Amino acid sequence: MPDHEFAVWAPIPERVQVDVDGTLHPMTRDSDGWWRAVVDAHVDSRYGFVLDDDPTVLPDPRSPRQPDGVHERSQLWDPSTVAWSDTAWQGRSVEGGVIYELHVGTFTPTGTLDSAIEKLDYLVDVGVDFVELMPLNAFGGTHGWGYDGVLWYAVHEAYGGPDALVRFVTACHERGLGVLIDAVFNHLGPSGNYLPRYGPYLTESNTGWGQGVNVSEAGADEVRRYILDCALRWMRDFHVDGLRLDAVHALADRTAIHILEEMSAETDALAEQLGRPLSLIAESDLNDPRLITPRDRGGYGLTAQWDDDIHHAIHTAVSGERQGYYSDFGSLESLAKTLRHGFFHAATYSSFRHRRHGRPLDTATIPATRLLAYTSDHDQVGNRAVGDRPSQNLDFGQLAVKAALVLASPYTAMLFMGEEWGSSSPFQFFTSHPEPELAKATAEGRKAEFSSHGWDADDIPDPQDPETFARSKLKWDEVDTGEHGRLGALYRQLIALRHDEPDFADPWLDHLRIDYDEDRRWITLYRGAFAVACNLGTDPVTVPVTGEVVLASTEPTVGEHTTLPGHSFAIVRTG
């Protein structure tokens, strides 16, 4: 058996041993809190660490594989042994692309990375540029959203483990698809989190999902390194093209060099080394342009960020919903303002937050492609009480208008799996915590949360019920049927137009002109020689646009002006 150096950062315990295939070996402590031992081991040896006098064998915080779950021994996995066949892939930045967010467990009936490969040709046909996978890190139980991960370096075994991810990324790159992974660095899940036994990974602050991660208090340097090394691992060892960084506003960093700036710099250095672009996309509710401002201009230098304001402005204008954080949105004025300036709340008062929020975006220097526009995502669907999609509440025309406003906009576009055919499946909140007390608390907490907002507790799905998970799986047999097929065809045409016409690639918001009529419920976006006219009302309206109709959801009447049927759009070549 070859020698292997086992190492773990554990400044808290006084003694650390490594258990390799059932045999304990002493480890030597360095001055920086790292413990090391060279031990004979197989390429797939099971191992873990024993801290002080507790005989429990704990998994490696940097575990490359957890074949038996997050409470058990880790397993070695060597990325250098992978024979990659994607050398022809040159990569590309996410800016201006079309991203497809999916949850591996519900994307296909079997819910694995290998079964997801079977649907990649479909995504290519739709026109998708990138596949964004919801979190793959190891978490407690067999199925869940993945945001309660506890071993960030390991690929969840129920999805197929690290070898399956290699096969998936290879298959994507062979088809010209980029791959993004949703990475959660702001908190850890409640089941299997042994990091506090090793070192000061957490703080006393609370993110709302658990204790905050220590990125700026005593001992933070090694915790930051833990995060940065994990981020780089996905892009280096698994060839992924970038990360979606979950809820970065929950990273309480008070240091002079924010961890996001540090991650951006190291990602750019890795991209230079690999010879292909790498992208970092932040999820943030701060409306803070610093995230996507270049580092040499005082920003963090991230590639892009999700833009919930765009989602809220489109959804409320089309659907009429106004509750909760939608309260400031709904008018065509707010829709036009958001599409024209990127953020709706830009140092302006937020009635939901009861304070000023956000900061204006410098649209002359920051292109719209650094913001992601979408009509659905896992949060905006799954965090509704019953996980209902827009397609379960809106008609074909309303869904078509939503699609046009996103895909014909200057922003980087994102779809949520099944959106493009108006999937009838909900996407509900589901868990599979093996601990009875945690399972009970999760179910009761979910019901209490939404009951307080007026929902009948009996209508709230139990996250632990296997049927909640099963209901959330896509129904692929409906893709080409009836209105589903009609909507899917429209999405393909919109994406093709976006890819083929240079006017739709213009990223500068200063070039975007918008007209609207609040009372008659129409809005028009002007993209170079094209006018994207949308009727959000139920009655036909005549808009001051004329020319050649190149795409429409329902046939308009074109004369001196264009008359749009209720709930419809038309893209007109005006020049």
Automatic annotation (TrEMBL):
Q: Which Gene3D superfamilies match?
A: E-set domains of sugar-utilizing enzymes, Glycosidases, Immunoglobulins
Q: Where is the active site?
A: 246, 283
Pathway annotation from the record: Glycan biosynthesis; trehalose biosynthesis
Q: Where is this site: Transition state stabilizer?
A: 379
Q: Where along the chain is substrate bound?
A: 244-249, 308-312, 378-383
Q: What is its EC number?
A: 3.2.1.141
Which parts pass through the membrane?
Answer: none
* Origin: domain of life: Bacteria
Q: Which InterPro entries match?
A: DUF3459, GH, GH13_cat_dom, Ig-like_fold, Ig_E-set, Trehalose_TreZ, Trehalose_TreZ_E-set_sf
What is catalysed by this protein?
A: hydrolysis of (1->4)-alpha-D-glucosidic linkage in 4-alpha-D-[(1->4)-alpha-D-glucanosyl]n trehalose to yield trehalose and (1->4)-alpha-D-glucan
A single GO CC term for this protein reads: cytoplasm
Q: What Gene Ontology terms describe what this protein does at the molecular function level?
A: 4-alpha-D-(1->4)-alpha-D-glucanotrehalose trehalohydrolase activity
- Biological process terms in GO annotation: trehalose biosynthetic process
All residue ranges annotated as the Glycosyl hydrolase family 13 catalytic domain in the record: 101-446
Where is it located? Cytoplasm
Q: Which family does it belong to?
A: Belongs to the glycosyl hydrolase 13 family.
NCBIfam families per the record? trehalose_TreZ
Name recorded for this polypeptide? Malto-oligosyltrehalose trehalohydrolase
The species this protein belongs to is Mycolicibacterium madagascariense
